[in-house]
Amino acid sequence: MSFFYFPEMGDSDLKRKFFSDGFLVIEDFFNDEEVTELKKAGLELTQNALSESKKTVFNTINLEQNKETYFLESSDKISYFFEEGALGENGELLVDVSKSLNKVAHALHWLHPIFRQATFHPKVKQLSSEIGLVEPRVVQSMYIYKNPGLGSEVISHQDATYLYTEPQQIYGFWFPLEDATIENGCLWFIPGSHKSGVHRRYIRNPDKSSNELLINDKPTPHYPASAFRAVPVKKGACVLIHGQVVHRSEHNRSDKSRHAYTFHIHDAHQSQWSPDNWLQIDNEFPLLYAN
Fold this sequence. Notes:
Its cofactor is Fe cation. Keywords: Iron, Metal-binding. There is one protein chain. By secondary structure, the protein is α+β, with helices and mostly antiparallel strands. The chain is 20% helix and 24% strand. The strands form 4 sheets. Strands 1-13-8-15-5-4-3-2 form an 8-stranded mixed β-sheet. A 4-stranded antiparallel β-sheet has the order 6-14-9-12, with no helix packed on it. It has a two-stranded antiparallel sheet with strand order 7-16. Helix 4 links the parallel strand 2 and strand 3. It is globular, with a radius of gyration of 18 Å.
């Protein structure tokens, strides 16, 4: 299969823009057929959520997942994480299962054929090469639902907080499968914020006696609201995200969902994966990018 060349990424001005801003939007990355196939696969995953005996809530504010081995051990599995407002006190569903999930994660890129195909798409490989990755490794993947009314806020953060390498070599590939608008929770960025280092780390708790399995090493940084820029994008685009750029998304208060598929890559040739990261991969489950 031949590579697809990105003339716009070959343009020095666009490359400079990415490394200057910390993010870049590439329109029409996936075609309508590919987007439809990915979204259909994401909707089919919701039907498997009913069989989950453990219903774990994922929330970037309350951080209930900090105490969950289900979250900690999800790196080599397809795991299901629910919205807080979708579950009752006893774990019963309060909404239709198709609207109940926050995300399905973290090994879709290896264990699901549709998401594997998208992750290892020739365009992704070429784009990885264009930004200078020598030995790219996919470390985790997520299908994010952001359902109407329930889709929760994602707080201001850097991806390198959660996926840390030394030196920093983390890049996110984010694909909206529906138009991402200000109303339904598009991404917001602080342009240039990736130049200020990694502000805090989310790590495995060194205190093995604590019921908090994961902790932050520093308090939550304050980022002024005025510094953020909204980045609405059409379905099928690729939003390339530098691991240190500060970004967030707001609660979906609209009547439309905002499905997206995303994964992260680090360069194994130029950086070392931190043993403190929450996400650790068993040696039998490779991080290496498929050829």
